[in-house]
User: Which sequence fits this backbone?
């Protein structure tokens, strides 16, 4: 019987707290659709970003407030309209978090492959 050595991992500890609100905000279909629309780069107002979503104006405002609180969206008052802008930097933070998790899993799978192949 061979000696089974558990591979050691030197992984960076991920701190999910900064992105928790981001992912929570993206966890709703209406808000995710709003983000998808905004990511097109087209200009949107409060009314146009929620058009066709089958939610009331008050519901749209609540959804947008959650996106603002998560720092995914910036609202700019321009005269009588309010422009809705995507905060791309915040989305990039979420993407970086996911990429780091993916990298860690790839390292773990590679270590497992080495152990299996060495037996």
Assistant:
């Amino acid at each position: 019987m061979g000696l089974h050595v558990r591979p050691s991992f030197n992984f960076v500890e991920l701190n999910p707290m900064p992105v928790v609100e981001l992912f929570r905000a993206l966890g709703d279909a209406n808000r995710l659709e709003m983000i998808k629309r905004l990511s097109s780069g087209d200009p949107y107002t409060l009314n146009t970003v929620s058009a066709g979503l089958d939610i009331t104006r008050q519901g749209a405002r609540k959804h947008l407030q959650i996106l603002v609180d998560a720092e995914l969206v910036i609202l700019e008052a321009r005269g009588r309209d309010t422009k809705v802008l995507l905060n791309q930097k915040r989305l990039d933070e979420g993407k970086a978090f996911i990429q780091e998790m993916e990298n860690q899993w790839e390292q773990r799978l590679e270590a497992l492959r080495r152990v299996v192949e060495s037996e």
Remarks:
- Residues 1-14 have pLDDT under 50 and may be disordered.
- The longest strand covers residues 73-78.
